Known about the structure:
Blueprint: H1 6-14, E1 22-24, H2 25-35, H3 41-53, E2 57-61, E3 64-67, H4 80-83, E4 88-89, H5 91-97, E5 108-114, E6 124-127, E7 132-139, H6 140-143, H7 148-151, H8 163-174, H9 195-204, H10 208-218
Parallel strand pairs: 5-7
Antiparallel strand pairs: 1-3, 2-3, 4-5, 6-7
Amino acid sequence: MRAPHWTTRFELALAEPTALRVLDKASLVRLARDVRAGVSDPTVERWIQDAVSANRLQRVVRGLYLNRLISPPAQLCEAAVWLRPGAVISLQTVLGDAGVWNNFTDWVTAVVPLSRRYTTPSLGRLETAAGIFLFRGLPETVLEAGPKEDRLVGGITYRRATPEAALLHWLYLSNSPRSGMSPPPLDLDLSALESRRLKHLSKAMRLSKPLEEWISRAGGTHALQPVG
């Protein structure tokens, strides 16, 4: 019995639950050579072009792809950290997905750490073949303030803020003279937020007073979800 063609075995490897969800060309070449030793770069490139045409891969930017063979298929927000080191999905994307903000946007909004450890990132709107990103900068000390389990969603393969952290990122930016971002709208659904987490994170980020003032205008602390 003949062994399956190497491309079949390659695609089965990409469909494995442990496969990379976002891939650059170097990752694809390495995996292809694990399946078929010595396969050439041009051969892999031809497969990539065919895979993009067949929606097995989705091109984000040149040399970066979403794995659509894995289940569930990779989503655009997972590519943010590949485009901007340290990026965290936050702001309107997180609040919209959580039902806190009722204005849907298909843009991916993310915050990027500003630190001497990183090259100054390019911020603002980035159009890609797969969709639009909007990157905003936050001091790394603010972005990493508070316990990790309070500020980042666990159990996923990319960095995504909790709704409480996303709201505080928005508050920080709206209070920063460098940002020009408007304050969060007052009609956000606060019942979708945990009061304990919001309180602890606001203290860690030194945003307790701006948060109290905003909540007062938005309807008061009674609208917040109590700790379960």
